[in-house]
Design brief:
Length: 49
């Protein structure tokens, strides 16, 4: 249990992987939103041409 206190090995790794997971999900979300936006833009361009 002493590893779960702040500064312990397990605590540090839990925080580290939580931050990495949030960044990965966040950047992936941004990539998905941009991809959808580009597809909609392309469809609108094709529709007007």
């Amino acid at each position: 249990m002493r590893d779960l206190i702040p500064g312990g090995y397990v605590f540090t790794h839990a925080i580290f992987w939580t931050v990495i997971a949030m960044v990965a999900v966040g950047t992936n979300g941004v990539a998905i939103i941009l991809s959808v936006g580009l597809v909609l833009l392309a469809l609108e361009s094709i529709g007007k041409a």
